[in-house]
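User: Structure tokens for this complex, please. No commentary.
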Amino acid sequence: MHTNSAVLFNENTSFTYVDVIVPLYLKNTLTWFVPSQFHNGIAVGVRVEVQIGKSRRYAGIIKKIHQDKPANIEVKPILNVLDDRPILHEDQLKLWAWISKYYMCTEGEVMIAALPSHLKLSSETVVVFNPDHEVDTQTLNEKEYLVSEALEIRSELKISEIQKILDSNHVYPVIKQLIDKRICLVFEQMNETYKAKTETYIHLNSIYHNEEVLETLVNSWSKAPKQLDLLLSFLHLQRTQGDVLKSALLKKANASPAVFDGLVAKDILKVEKRQVDRLPNLPKEFNINFRLSVAQETALMQIQESFQQFPATLLHGVTGSGKTMVYIKLLEQFIKKGVQSLFLLPEIALTSQIIRKLRDHLGGHVAIYHSKFNMSERLELWHKVKSGEVKVVLGARSALFLPFSKLEFIIIDEEHDASYKQQDPAPRYNARDAAIFYAGLVNAKVLLGSATPSLETYYNATTHKYGLVKLSERFGNLELPDITTIDLKLEALDAGQSQIFAPLTIDSIRATLDKGRQIIIFQNRRGYSPYIICNTCSWIPKCTNCDVSLNYHKSSNKLHCHYCGSTYPLYKTCGNCGNQDLLQKNFGTEHIEENLETVFPEQKVARMDTDSIKGKHSHDTLIKQFEEHKIDLLVGTQMVVKGLDFDNVGAVVIPDGDSILHFNDFRVNERAFQLIEQVSGRAGRKNEHGQVFIQLRDTNHPLIEKLQKHDYDAFYNTEIQERQMFFYPPFSRIINVQSRHNDAFASKEAMTIFCNFIRQQYPQFVFGPAQPVINKVRNQYIFECMLKFQKNRQIIDGIKSAIETAVVEVLNHPHLKRTIFTVDVDPL
DNA sequence: AGCACGCCGACT
DNA sequence: GTCGGCGTGCTC
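Assistant:
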């Protein structure tokens, strides 16, 4: 009787199970049981080693600890506990869960994006040569022979290496044969990839610490003069600097490692390996050596008041208003309070100027985190953030996932920037929106900053969901730049020298250069991306399905829609006024650079776009050269806009304004206004106020007037009205659904079935497919539809579950089984 | 993402 | 009749 009840007790209550997130695409979290020896070691947020499938092992994160045995499956045990304390906080896991739900991906996919890869261990199958077995080459086929040959030489191979040897992904059958023939063995190896960085320090053997003994040694030195030289340089270094680094010594003495090894072999010098930080350890001091202007001071106070009232506050500050200075003051306050802050930037690799400013003023309190960092550096920062040592993290979107212990302040600079949204691999999350959610979770304050806020943020601010603080005055009372249009319908392009600039533009450039000022030429296209415009009435041919401008393709001599792929014959006459004066616009940054070099041969011209910026530092170098006025004319794409403040730019030239005003994007005006306003802001800083020259034909475009007045509110108001006219319910959500399939017809059919299914359930909210898109990407045809609806949590949840059902519905058709759906949620 | 299983065509 | 190519589905 006792035995029975003991068994029952054990089976019912003493088994502990853990739900573990593994870095895989899994719809449901899987459960493992915890053997008794690990009971004390587990906690939510601790990594455990688990087996998944036949042999593969992963480091997963414990999400939940419970006693519920999963029904109908045999539960495997966890193999190991990898951490003695959680590597992240439960709030982080809540953020992961929210992201996976809101952006419709799995938590495993969030984990892949969130953890530095050194924390995401997985096993790799390693094939080892069996030395006890004679290879009988007779019994092997060609592939088996190749592998066994390689094994005999290398004795150990990874699966990926075998794939390379055989030039095929199908290597398992071969390995299986080799195992059967007892030529090799396999095992799973967990790869711990992080290695602490060490530096080698050198000490003198302690017996020579006695001066006399040392003197005797040096004086009685007979052979090996190089070793003596090295020893003497060592003694000198030690006396002047204290601890001596091996690398420093060898460099200073210009000696080879062999000479050094000789001294070590004689036991004169001793080697010590010391662990060091990869991250620079700057002194933790402030250097607030500036004073805020009255306007900035007021803004700062308003922000602090707003923080009492709102979870998030928008700082709408014109370019050059010195938002960064306000940020620094706020960060200083939070650092002094002893809490952590996060400073998000769209593409941090491109914004070394802000990094420099923060480092200058806040010193070692600031750490930087972005994708160009290597994984070891990221892991070290991870731990420093968790321990609370680092107070401010300046980072790109992935910095949001760092394990902050007491985060109270998040700055999202340039909040309108599209690169906050991760596009390609899931999770397709917007770091701005996720950060606002996360701030709510941990009770942190959010400051959104922009000169050209996104419409949805501005809407939230004007409807008092967020606080709103304006900084509408440039620092030092500078005026905003004058925007001058140069009407290309009146000003013929300079036919002799330049196909790109009108003589008037060239004169303006020359005048600016003569004043010793630099110039930025902004063209939003690399290479060649032409479109067509009527020289008389500035009509631009657009796709009837998609309402985006058509691109001329020389190869087919037709007009192509880059959205839906449909083609149109080349127009001979204008579809609006009937004139035959249609112009092909045809230049990108390269062309402009070349052209400027001929027009201004004495000036230094440089180009900044993704083609000309290759390495990690070439961008920095270019900016430095420009700052030091080694470059007079800088031609660039959007890249020149991002986070750059130059003091000596007299003018900005936009040679092809029409291409911006008629963007290939359905949110045409929003992007156009933002771009032109942002790029205009680069003109005129410390010096007299700047000039902007826009060459264009469509001079009556309604945005121009608003841009000239820098009137964001006017732009915003008309944009809202327009959206209502086009049935975009203002401030709703869009869900973008892509179907892809190797077969264009199947992809299209899948999308049609999908859309019909959604329409049945949500006829009132869904206006789709709004943009029938067919793209051919890597042999896969993609169709897209956009679901737009009023923002409302219940509706969003309902639509998402309808989407899931619709996807299942589509995949039930045998010929559509191989359709891949991707879903993407965004504010509109 | 791996890895197994199972269906179908090519070949002893 | 078997081998192996590849598509399909599951992983606690």
